[in-house]
Amino acid sequence: MSTEHDLIIIGAGPGGYVAAIRAAQLGLNVACIEKEPALGGTCLRVGCIPSKALLESSELFEQAKNGMGNRGIRISKVELDLPSMLGQKDQTVSALTKGIEGLLKKNKVTRYLGHGRITAAGAVSVTNRENKTTELTGKNIIIATGSVVATLPGIEFDGERVVSSTEALSFSSVPGKLVVIGGGAIGLELGTVWRRLGSKVTVLEYLNRILPGMDDELAKQSLKVLKSQGLEFQLGARVTGVTLNRKTCDVHIEGHENLRCDRVLVAVGRRPNTAELGLESVGIETDKRGFIPIDDTYQSSVSGIYAIGDVVGGAMLAHKAEEEGIACVEKIVTGYGHVNYDAIPAIVYTSPEIASVGATEEQLKESGIEYKKGSFPFAANGRARAIGHTEGMVKILADKKTDRILGAHILGPHAGDLIAEVAVAIEFCASSEDLARCTHAHPTLAEAVKEAAMAVDQRAIHF
User: Fold this and answer.
1) What pTM was computed for the model?
2) Range of 166's domain?
3) What are the C-alpha distances in Å from 167 to residues 33, 229, 291, 299?
4) Does 10 share its domain with 130?
5) Structural domain includes residue 156
6) Within this chain, do residues 171 and 229 fall inside the same structural domain, yes or no?
7) H-helix or E-strand spanning residue 354
8) Which one of 216, 252, 387, 463 is separated from 92 by 20 to 30 angstroms, measured CA to CA?
9) 442 is catalytic
10) Which residues contact 57 (CB under 8 A, 6 or more apart)?
11) pLDDT band at 92, cuts 50/70/90?
């Protein structure tokens, strides 16, 4: 028996479930296929949400242990209850996955539990864990299967001592020595969690900088701050393999002595999850990196089959996938959908946070675009002083001729929230003067954004 739908979505991560809800709002009969019992994809189950829960808990632990004396708060004894901390993380994930399940029901989206495989244009088979198959048909199909962790040649995960970010969210004990391979967002966030909880953490990065793709000035400042907090770094380190000993691991670094540790976290990025989707059955070929090529409507080389999120490349971010899911569905139904890829923020949730939107200085120079720069330090911001978080700055880049904002980069408290203001400004093609002339409440961290915008024309007031 074939079950008919207007739209079949494979994957219920941020891109898939958001696309499903929007399609249902637009009147389509929608099927959403997910092989995991819990909805929300990698982001919610073993990525963004649980990592942020641990980042918050570990920061509170560190503050209680070391950071409240200068506030006049004396705590005689602070102990780590790791099982309870992990339990709070799991409760957060559970509540949100159930919330998504409720949203799909509310919008009358039909959920299928199992692995989805395209068998022909407009046809998908769903195989559950009991190996029972349900055949679905639909005019349109959206592939939203996300990504999976990548590794390096010579390194294999064992799930215990050589792990991905998934296992690093649930260590049963705090590693004495933890080596993190990769100096991007995932490595820095999880390295920070376990450093706060007591690990000696060393981050190995192949490049001569951390945070590849982010603004170089911001990355350099971030490196100084993270070093001052106790993270150790080896930059320009090419890891060639990991050897498991009886109780320890040896990380092999080209040109250096082996680095011995208790656990190794491999955080070198992610790759598109396109295996076993049946792409070959309809003639869809991935590129050399495994991504599905699409046109400006998110349609693949086969009419009626679309792809969004991590499987199509670009920034591998949950909010990018959500925007593409909405735009793809709206294009299918109304003929128009929009994503401004110049206004997609990226955030690293260390403390202080690191946030970026739009172009970096390096990208502008490479493109030959003349620009103006305005910077403002949080050390000169009253609110930052009052809360005791004065590290970092706000930097705004604007076109030299038109003053249109081209990018913004923030290292500082609540940078991930502050960057939203500049993302909106970029979306509406605002100038730095537009942002500078908007009244910002005092005392707030957001005043640093206003002052950076004023600094573009060298008229910052408080610095």
Assistant:
1) 0.97
2) 162-268
3) 25, 24, 25, 35
4) yes
5) no
6) yes
7) strand 353-358
8) 387
9) yes
10) 85, 88, 89
11) very high
